[in-house]
């Protein structure tokens, strides 16, 4: 807290701790915001360094240093909320008490193996083709896929994301509708039309959502164009 004050970190500034440990810096930022109503943000970076197996942290269920840091942030937020209960001068909606956790990982999409020679054994090429039929990691969550697509589309991890219901399907609205992403595995003409009517700059859907329905996919392209959505992609 002293160092943040010494550096003059003010309204809306971001504090980065590249060796965050147990997230003491995040704790300090949240406390300072609580004291003066500020909107400072924090980015904590910590390798998943294993805790000593004979240590108290490991026995308590924290396998890595990063796990300790995440739990500390949760407890600080809970404490602030509990202390603020009944205080008329505290607006929880104004103070940002949320945080996201991201881990560096492999892509959720299978990449074509370009090392297979064109004149290679036909069975090798056939196997490559079969692997691409189900090209999304079956263990990937919807959120995993969403944020990878965000990054690949040039957006940051802090981009505003809203969940909408259009024609009975979940659609993610990115940056106030600039990009719409639908990860439903069974798309309909109705949801395609509803997305197009919002006239986003870009639309991304899962290729598997068309379930081999080439007619629906062709119609989707035309529906998007009719609403001036030129950038329509499937993954």
Quick one: overall form?
globular
Individual helix count: 8
Q: What percentage of amino acids are in beta strands?
A: 5-15%
The assigned structural class equals: alpha/beta
Percent helix range: 25-40%
- Straight-line N-to-C gap: 45 Å
**Strands, count:** 7
Order of helices and strands: HEHEHHHHEEEHEHE
For the biggest β-sheet, the strand order reads: 3-4-5-6-7
Largest sheet: 5 strands, mixed
* Mean of all residue-level pLDDT scores: 89
Spans of at least 5 consecutive residues with low confidence: none
- Rg from Cα: 23 Å
Oligomer: single chain
Compile the SSE list and pairings.
Layout: H1 2-6, E1 14-17, H2 24-36, E2 41-44, H3 56-59, H4 65-84, H5 122-133, H6 142-152, E3 161-166, E4 169-174, E5 179-182, H7 189-197, E6 202-205, H8 214-226, E7 231-234
Parallel strand pairs: 1-2, 5-6, 6-7
Antiparallel strand pairs: 3-4, 4-5
Task: Write structural notes for this entry.
The protein starts with a helix and ends with a strand. A hairpin with a 2-residue loop joins β3 and β4 (169-174). With 235 residues, it is α/β, with parallel strands linked by helices. The mean pLDDT is 89. α2 (24-36) runs parallel beside α4 (65-84) and α7 packs parallel to α8 (214-226). Helices cover 37% and strands 14% of the residues. The strands form 2 sheets. A 5-stranded mixed sheet has the order 3-4-5-6-7. It has a two-stranded parallel ribbon with strand order 1-2. It contains 8 helices and 7 strands; from the N terminus they run αβαβααααβββαβαβ.
